[in-house]
Protein: ATPase/protein kinase
Amino acid sequence: MRRVNVEELAQGIGDGSRAAIARAITLVESTKPAHRAQAHQLLQLIAPHTGKAFRVGISGVPGAGKSTFVNAMGVKLIDERHHRVAVLAVDPSSSRTGGSILGDRTRMADLAARDDAFIRPSPSGGHLGGVARATRESMLVLEAAGYDVILVETVGVGQSEVAVSGMVDTFLMLQVARTGDQLQGIKRGILELADVIAITKADGDNEQAARVAARELSIAMKLITSDNSKRRAPVLTCSSYTGAGLDEVWDTVAKHRAELEAAGTLAARRLEQQQDWLWNMVRDELMEALRTSPEVRAAADVVQAQLADESLSALEGAQEILAAFARSVGSLPWADRPGQ
Structure:
């Protein structure tokens, strides 16, 4: 990626240029030090125009039809409710498996054709932390471009769901009715993340099974906590094929966010997310610095050789590596930033 004019890029984002948005997201996804510095500058410039969108996380079991649901819901939000909708995918496994990015875009063909929609898959390389960082920063770019609904879709692998719940206002869990084992494979911890639950594919011969699954899940949610004063995630049914129930699902999602705003907890939730993100960024920057520092690599080679011949303990070796890191701090890219 060639060096960009950050000021022009920020202006293009504000103007809603799709090319500028795509270039900006590519920039914030990059892990190259020079690109990270530019990305930080860009995020500072667009910061006053972020934070106003409705952020919704969407996850679900395999086969729940997440992409089909996002396509149907996104089209409805644009055509009937006049929103501008952006979709971000969180798939830390895509670097190994190729993910389902092409399939997802095929299943989102109707949404992709809308001028008021923007769909972006996760970066194809990197661990969950890197993907989560890129997703957070991409979300800010899209908010600055005027997208007022951001749908963050996760593949549903446990940790990615936790990561997504830490960057959205409302977390929507999609489930599908399975004969006799509707509750199998659903982890309690994942259910506790959910603000709203929807049983998908509630159409045709499957409609009754979906209603049964919804009742069973509603009972399960009551069993998770005995505190009647604590909010329980409502369970609904819907069909992405017929559109039945989609309005009710979105109204319930919107109601949850309105309740957060009325109680004054939306701002608190976002502040807590910012604080968590602050320390995640500190940790990631330190780990990247440790990984790339020539002084640390040289010290690590010596330490590991000494560990092999038992002339040094792990505790002493850790101290040697940390001492090398301390000596290298002045040469790190963030050491001379304003305020340092």
Observations:
- Strands lie at 54-60, 85-90, 117-120, 149-154, 170-176, 196-200, 235-237.
- Residues 1-49 form a domain with the Single alpha-helices involved in coiled-coils or other helix-helix interfaces fold (CATH 1.20.5.170).
- Residues 95-103 have pLDDT under 50 and may be disordered.
- The radius of gyration is 23 Å.
